[in-house]
Specification:
The structure holds 2 protein chains of 2 kinds. Chain A is mainly alpha-helical. Chain A is built from 5 helices and 4 strands; from the N terminus they run αββαββααα. In chain B, helix 2 runs parallel beside helix 17. The chains are: A mainly alpha, B alpha/beta.
């Protein structure tokens, strides 16, 4: 069986063409890793960002779950999300066991998913903007997970 | 350095007595020993005060090491464990096991025979000497983990029209093209300002030999390159014995494959061969520890509150099977619960320690096991263990490292996903995950992958109700601000586990953390 394929497309398209988030699995992570580089696409639509990222923990209905003392918080009907700055800060910086997401999501994606969660699973007024998120990202930097043993 | 064993031992013992463990470790390193690990042997604790007791929370490796060594030191130990099995993240799933997720998703694993998936740790570096020590001590049989396989595949959606390539072809081509460029730059004098004439000569030889370049310093298709990357027709016998060389890939195509990321991966300290796995599943290690300490462990016991005063510690708990509540008391506590649980626990420790647990996010990770009717990757592709890499969400396909050539079903790892891919897969239903893994993995073995599939099981760490994540993730800022607060002894309580180490996410880190924690606990107990 032959694995030699067609001539590849130019790398320029991969670098500039799409909103693909490209990150080295080995970089910034001291933990065991699959090896190589992932190029999984994340949508720019809030609903899809929620489905592709957030529902891994908060579940499809955004109701979270778990038993007493081991709870994944609900985002649906969550009064705290009325505070848009709190919501942005949580996604950008992480909270408790939840990691920071400003290395995985762009400010536009974060704004889109914050708006989706605040309006679809809640009924809070007002839209956050990409610029608002970018300002929080700029103020916090992007912490690099350490790489002592990777 | 040559020294007789006795002399060296005496010298080290003397250094240890005068300067403590750190001085001894530094001396051992200088003498050419112990560079692999901070492990200097199991802790030699002894002489616990008569009747002294320790309560250990969590029967993962850190907790069970604590129970084992503290019992040897003379303490009476009790261990409380939430799950119905020991081991924690040292875990294997087999046919009949249930995987229950937050939100209610439940899978019953359908694997046949002794087949298993190691959802968490699955490979052990040769320098993780603490873990290897206890495996040997507890009779846990180890076999090679086939980490590096030159004949496995590398796939990138944007390279080679999406067709996977053999690792050896890409890696040899990458090395050849880079060698050619460097050799020609040297010859053209481009680097004369940076490389001495003598080194230039040596480097040219090195590039020609290492890069398998031809007489013109070209990396070219021919028998020379084929002697590393493989042939179109391999050497044989008799009248048609002559080999036919393979055709090399262009520099541009090779660069599009990103193969240097796999080459770099194999250079990682924790990924270098030799690597091991326990025969029969990773949980053989947890079971090995449990054989030593099982009589001290109360399973199905959820701790609900942790308190302490100047006389001792107390944990309130609920039996998850019977609903019975109770308390356990002791003089001291080793708490190995993960930070995701501690940050929600009613626990009597300092505000600084609470701030430390709350500053520890956990990574996501997901593995999928796929049972196949036969080992088509061996039969058709000559792939025996190791990994085929992809930039799709699944991350890789990893082939079983045991039972080679056997005519019975085998389980391969159909996804080891982290980052965005890990979240995408974890957010799916168990059935969607399997379908996605089959679609993505089919790129390596079209046809067979779906045709030979029997059943699959997925383990999304972010949804496991007892941990809600994979491993603690530190960064430079949180290390500086919180690490010492996390590991410090707080009254009568000390924490242990991978999160309390600089070896996060590795079993070695959990064990080294536990050894350090119980050593300090013992010193404190003797001084009290």
């Amino acid at each position: 069986m032959s694995f030699r394929g067609l001539k590849s497309a130019s790398g320029v398209a991969a670098l500039f063409g799409t909103a693909a988030i490209v990150f080295a699995a080995a970089s910034g992570n001291a933990q065991d890793a699959p090896g190589g580089v992932s190029s999984v696409d994340i949508s720019s639509e809030g609903k899809e960002v929620y489905e592709q990222i957030c529902q891994a923990c908060h579940l499809a209905d955004a109701k979270g779950g778990g038993g007493a003392g081991a709870i994944i918080p609900a985002l649906a009907g969550n009064a705290k999300l009325g505070d848009a700055d709190f919501t942005i800060g949580t996604v950008v910086k992480g909270r408790g066991g939840m990691p920071w997401f400003n290395d995985l999501l762009t400010p536009a994606q974060i704004a889109a998913v914050v708006n989706y969660v605040r309006t679809h699973f809640n009924d809070f007024p007002g839209q956050v903007t990409e610029a608002q998120v970018a300002a929080v990202v700029a103020a916090n930097g992007s912490p690099a997970a350490e790489c002592a043993t990777c | 350095m040559e020294m007789s064993g006795t002399t060296r031992r005496e010298l080290l013992s003397m250094i240890g007595k005068v300067g403590g463990t750190l001085a001894m470790y530094q001396a051992m390193t200088a003498l050419g020993h112990a560079a692999q690990t901070q492990f200097t042997g199991p802790p030699a604790l002894s002489g616990a005060r008569s009747g002294a007791t320790v309560l250990v929370l969590g029967a993962g490796l850190a907790g069970m090491l604590a129970a084992f060594e503290l019992t040897k030191a003379g303490y009476k130990v009790q261990v409380l464990e939430y799950q119905d099995r020991p081991g924690g993240r040292n875990y294997s799933v087999r046919g009949g096991d249930k995987i229950v997720e937050v939100g209610g998703g439940t899978q019953t694993v359908g694997f046949t025979g002794d087949n298993y998936l190691n959802p968490g740790p699955w490979r052990i570096p040769h320098h993780h000497r603490t873990l290897l020590h206890y495996c040997k001590a507890f009779g846990v049989e180890l076999e090679p983990f086939i980490q590096m396989n030159h004949n496995a595949l590398v796939h990138r959606k944007a390279a080679f029209g999406g067709q996977p390539q053999r690792y050896k072809e890409l890696a040899v081509d990458f090395k050849g093209h880079v060698s050619e460029l460097l050799a020609k730059s040297l010859n053209a004098g481009d680097l004369d300002a940076r490389v001495s004439a003598e080194d230039k000569g040596k480097l040219l030889v090195a590039m020609r030999e290492w890069g398998v370049l031809d007489a013109n310093l070209d990396y070219s298709s021919g028998l020379k390159a084929s002697s590393q990357r493989g042939y179109d027709r391999a050497p044989g016998g008799g009248i048609n014995g002559a080999p036919t060389p393979s055709k090399i890939n262009s520099l541009s195509d090779v660069l599009s494959s990103n193969v240097w990321t796999q080459m770099g991966f194999y250079f990682s300290y924790v990924m270098q061969t030799t690597m091991f796995q326990p025969k029969g599943g990773m949980d053989m290690i947890g079971k090995g520890f449990f054989r030593q300490v099982g009589n001290m462990v109360r399973l199905n016991t959820q701790v609900t509150r942790i308190s302490q005063n100047e006389r001792g510690v107390m944990a309130s708990w609920t039996d998850t099977k019977t609903g019975k509540t109770g308390t356990s008391e002791a003089d001291w506590m080793v708490c190995t619960l993960p930070a995701t649980i501690l940050s929600q626990m009613d626990m009597q420790v300092s505000d600084a320690k609470k701030a430390a647990f709350k500053a520890l996010p956990y990574s996501n990770s997901l593995k999928i096991g796929l049972e196949m009717k036969r080992r088509f990757w061996e039969e058709k592709d000559a792939i025996y263990g190791g990994h085929s890499f992809t930039d799709q969400a699944i991350g890789l396909v990893s082939y079983p490292n045991y039972d080679f050539f056997k005519d019975r079903p085998a389980v391969l790892v159909g996804a080891f996903a982290s980052g965005a891919g890990g979240y995408q897969l974890a957010g799916m239903t168990p059935e969607q995950r399997i379908q996605t893994a089959l679609d993505q993995g089919s790129v390596f073995h079209p046809g067979d992958y779906r045709a030979e599939f029997m059943s699959g099981a997925s383990v999304p760490w972010s949804r496991l109700p007892w941990i809600m994540g994979c491993c603690a993730t530190w960064n430079e800022e949180t290390r500086a601000k919180h690490y010492q607060d996390l590991v410090s002894m707080d009254g009568r309580i000390v924490l242990a586990g991978e999160h309390a180490s600089y070896y996060g996410c590795w079993m070695e880190g959990a064990l080294l953390s536990s050894i350090d924690a119980i050593t300090r606990l013992h010193q404190r107990a003797l001084a009290a």
